[in-house]
Design brief:
alpha+beta, Naphthalene 1,2-dioxygenase Alpha Subunit, Chain A, domain 1, 351 residues, globular, 22% helix, 2 domains, four-stranded antiparallel sheet
Length: 351
């Protein structure tokens, strides 16, 4: 019987089937009936289950499933920042992780999926107050940096002096995106973490940090709230459920999963707006070759001195992109219990 049904105890996890108890290293500590018949027996010493090292960071539990020796758990900035409250959103998606990551290297989709389509959704919902002008992209660029790829853009009447271009925001290799800023009231900063479950399913987390309100009590790691994000589905008439598409995360999910379980790239036609995807694929191939040669890929840390508060800069509240998209646009944070408690509910949509 799977230990997903196991009973947590002070020391170890007890199997619900026969009561055998195992510790964090997979060793059997107790076998109630076996020990009833043979109190001095050592049969349990012959029994083990697969176990993985686990570490807590920023209110999350991380398991390492790779070869030994285990690297250090990266101290990305939002996991270790002080003076914030956090929450964690989750969804299991029926598609391959790579088509999710490639979306993050495609800035131009923002003005269409998250602006043009957003306005269409608002119209379908009878909410013209949600509609906002679109901010077309005039220039995009991508640069490699120590931890991955920086995405830059010039939008609307902006210039290369704007934070959108000067700072941009990072795609952290291989499977993390950072967006937002702690300076954006009612929005905060977040990581989107994409972990393959298998070839056709992906675990997706939204790890969000919000500036602590004056007088607000500190938050213990075990008190970080968890919420689920719905997968947009068609209704009984085969029509979109517009209520699930009034947020950027719902729109992204619809784009990801309607490509199929594994996006067919055999007949794709990449354009100028896809240069970030091309760069990411090259980086992925380079890092795979490095691993095949016995090396460590990007963002495997083994020196503690190189793993102290790994800062990931993002464009701030002054960014034209951030202003136009994040004002009156919700993401998975639509479902955030922290924002609801701070009074940012549907009013957030009103900008």
């Amino acid at each position: 019987m799977s230990l997903v049904y196991g009973i947590p105890e002070d020391v170890g996890l007890r199997c619900a089937y026969h009561g055998w108890r195992f510790d964090e290293k997979g060793r059997c500590l107790e076998q109630p009936y076996e020990e009833t018949e043979d109190p001095a027996g050592r049969f349990r010493e012959k029994v083990t289950v697969t176990a993985y090292p686990v570490q807590q960071l920023g209110g999350m539990l991380f398991a390492y499933l790779g070869p030994e020796p285990a690297p250090l758990l990266p101290n990305w900035d939002l996991f270790v920042v002080d003076g914030v409250v956090r929450d964690v959103g989750y969804v299991a998606l029926p598609c391959n992780w790579l088509q999710i990551m490639e979306n993050s290297l495609d800035p131009v989709h923002v003005e269409w999926l998250h602006q043009g389509f957003f306005n269409f959704v608002a119209d379908r919902l009878g909410r013209p107050d949600l509609q906002r002008p679109s901010t077309p992209h005039r220039q995009i660029a991508f640069d490699l940096f120590d931890y991955g790829i920086t995405k830059r853009r010039v939008v609307g009447e902006g210039s290369e002096e704007d934070d959108d271009w000067r700072i941009g925001h990072p795609i952290v290799f291989p499977n993390l995106l950072k967006t937002g800023s702690l300076s954006i009231k009612g929005r905060g900063a977040n990581f989107q973490i994409r972990v393959p479950i298998d070839d056709t399913h992906t675990a997706h987390w939204w790890y969000s940090c919000y500036s602590q309100e004056p007088g607000q009590a500190g938050q213990l790691p075990e008190d970080v709230p968890f919420y689920r994000v719905p997968v947009p589905v068609l209704d009984e008439d085969g029509q979109p459920n517009w209520e699930e598409l009034d947020n950027t995360s719902g729109q992204d999910i619809a784009a990801w999963i309607t490509q199929g379980p594994i996006a067919d790239r055999t007949d794709e036609t990449l354009g100028r707006s896809d240069r970030g995807i091309i760069l990411y694929r090259r980086l992925l191939e380079d890092q795979l070759a490095l691993v095949e040669d016995g090396g460590d890929p990007m963002n495997v840390f083994r020196n503690p001195d190189e793993n102290r508060n790994l800062n990931l800069q993002t464009e701030g509240v002054s960014a034209r992109y951030a202003k136009s998209l994040l004002t009156g646009r919700r993401a998975a944070t639509k479902f955030s219990p922290v924002l609801a408690a701070q009074g940012y509910g549907d009013s957030l949509l009103k900008g």
